[in-house]
Specification:
Protein name: 3-alpha,7-alpha, 12-alpha-trihydroxy-5-beta-cholest-24-enoyl-CoA hydratase
CATH topology: Thiol Ester Dehydrase, Chain A
Pfam families: MaoC_dehydratas (PF01575), MFE-2_hydrat-2_N (PF22622)
Radius of gyration: 18 Å
CATH architecture: Roll
Bound molecules: 3R-hydroxydecanoyl-coenzyme A
InterPro entries: HotDog_dom_sf (IPR029069), MaoC-like_dom (IPR002539), MFE-2_N (IPR054357)
CATH superfamily: Hotdog Thioesterase
CATH class: Alpha Beta
Structural class: alpha+beta
GO molecular function: (3S)-3-hydroxyacyl-CoA dehydrogenase (NAD+) activity; 17-beta-hydroxysteroid dehydrogenase (NAD+) activity; enoyl-CoA hydratase activity
Number of domains: 1
């Protein structure tokens, strides 16, 4: 059972994370970039000598990340039943292609949806460049703890979600994820067994391991900059979304977009099952 006071007060030691070109490429490979090695857009993210090579902004999700801390028994969290519910990232400065970042994580809120309905755990992480002290990014997430409702906490406030425009999407971009995407993506630092272990996936109620939500987010981020920023992935300065349904590795993610100036509303569906997997998306291009 969650102890709300203890969880809200949980201390996370600052994490120092040094990364380089190899990590940047591994992250991109985890999104399924590099499966089309003659495509310059894939090379831009996976080959350090390609023109325009750099870290994809959504990589902030895996940098100076505290790991799957929910598995630690003192959290009271039923980690097998966790799903990623929402995520946002804001780039305050460009993400360097290599460097050392300091990550500081904190729990920012808890919502009790009630017994049998689950709980929401809100967290936030700041990423600061160790060498310059520059704040690079703020990353925030909502974890949907499906088995942990009913701990006696408040049922709100919840974060407002972005409403998509009431018109057909202006454009879309398709990207097929590789069957082994989750096994590669996890090497960037998200080792939740749900994405690799068939037995754990079954316990969680799935037929097989599902893709990391943050991998799908990375695909959508890249797709938006492919469709609307001439492939300049570094144009992305903000992104927020809700994860509405799981993605299985190997599925094709279609990102549907509406552009209003620098703001891009978006959602994504899996073509093979015609299910919306990411919704209420808002991205900003600089
Ligand atoms: C703590 C350590 C950090 C760990 C982070 C996670 C680590 C990762 O490795 C884990 C992952 O990557 S999991 C993969 C990515 N995520 C997913 O696949 C989840 C997809 N979403 C779902 O399955 C459902 O939306 C589901 C199940 C989330 C909700 O579906 P339903 O229960 O059917 O919800 P619904 O009846 O539609 O709504 C009930 C109330 O919940 C709110 N809500 C719905 N979806 C939400 C979401 N995605 N995030 C936050 N809130 C959400 C609704 O608004 C509704 O609220 P209210 O009761 O106030 O009306």
């Amino acid at each position: 059972m969650i102890d709300p006071d203890a969880l809200l007060a949980r201390q996370f030691a600052p994490i120092e994370h040094s990364y380089d070109t190899r990590d940047v490429i591994l992250y991109a490979l985890g999104l399924g970039l590099g499966t089309d090695p003659l495509n310059p857009a894939h090379l831009r993210a996976t080959y350090e000598r390609a023109e325009g090579f750099g870290a994809l902004p959504a990589m902030v999700n895996v940098l100076a990340y505290p790991g799957f801390w929910a598995m630690e028994p003192d959290t009271g969290i039923t980690w097998q039943k966790l799903l990623h519910g929402e995520q946002s990232l804001t780039l305050h400065a460009p993400l360097p292609a290599k460097g050392t970042l300091i990550g500081q994580t904190r729990i920012t809120g808890l919502v009790d949806k009630g017994e049998g309905k689950g709980a929401l755990i809100y967290s936030e992480r700041t990423l600061t460049d160790k060498a310059t002290g520059t704040l690079i990014a703020t990353v925030a997430g909502t974890t949907f703890a499906r088995a942990d409702g009913g701990f006696g906490g408040a049922s709100g406030p919840t974060k407002p979600v972005h409403t998509l425009p009431d018109r057909a999407p202006d454009c879309h971009f398709d990207h097929q994820t590789p069957e082994g995407a989750a096994l590669i993506y996890r090497l960037s630092g998200d080792y939740n067994p749900l994405h690799a272990d068939p037995a754990i996936a079954t316990q969680a109620g799935f037929t097989r391991p599902i893709l990391h939500g943050l991998c799908s987010l990375g695909v959508a981020s890249w797709s938006i900059t492919q469709a609307l920023a001439d492939g300049r992935s570094e144009a992305l300065t903000h992104l927020q979304l809700r994860f509405t349904s799981p993605v299985y590795p190997g599925e094709t993610i279609r990102t549907e977009m509406w552009q209003d100036g620098a703001d891009v509303s978006f959602r994504a569906r899996v073509l093979e099952r015609d299910v919306v997997v990411l919704n209420n998306g808002l991205a900003r291009l600089g």
